[in-house]
Amino acid sequence: MNTRRLLAPALRTATAATLAAGGYLHAQLYIDGYRSIPVIGPLFLLQAGASIALAVLLLIGTPPLLLRMAAAGTALGALGGFTASRTVGVFGFTEHGLRPAPQALLSLLAETGTLLLLTVWQVTLAGRPRAARPPVGTAAWATTRTPPG
């Protein structure tokens, strides 16, 4: 069997899994106490919902580029928030190190894994030959031997 045919579904499934894991961790932290933090709590809930929704959409079928970009943006947003919360703070909220443990480390691994898998996926798509298509604006009958009618 062609390994390229197996690679795309495997990457899609693995990406959905890491994205869903990050969403689950954010939902768990929201429930465990982050919901009481102004602005940050709702952002954790938004991150969880977006991650899980995108994971489901990825599993439904081969996603268009826009969906893969949304998944990457969600993972980058989580990593950016993580970094900011440990350096300059986010809306007055700061954290230190890899606390809360183990969620902080697991979230870092899930979001980084999502980005790595999306990168590999995009590279494999870029290397795939495309089917020949008529130029944009060309009528469908122009590519056949006889015009309609």
Provide mean pLDDT, rounded.
88
The residue ranges in which pLDDT falls below 50 over 5 or more consecutive positions are none
Shape: elongated
**Beta-strand residue percentage:** under 5%
Binned, the helix content reads 55-70%
User: What separation lies between the terminal Cα atoms?
Assistant: 44 Å
- Count of helical stretches: 4
Number of strands: 0
The radius of gyration over CA amounts to 21 Å
Q: What structural class do you assign from the helix and strand content?
A: mainly alpha
Give the H and E element order. HHHH
Largest sheet: none
Mind explaining what this structure looks like?
- With 149 residues, this protein is mostly helical.
- 64% of the residues lie in helices and 0% in strands.
- The chain contains four helices and no strands.
- The mean pLDDT is 88.
Write the layout of secondary structure elements.
Blueprint: H1 3-31, H2 40-60, H3 65-86, H4 103-126
Helix pairs in contact: 1-2, 1-4, 2-3, 3-4
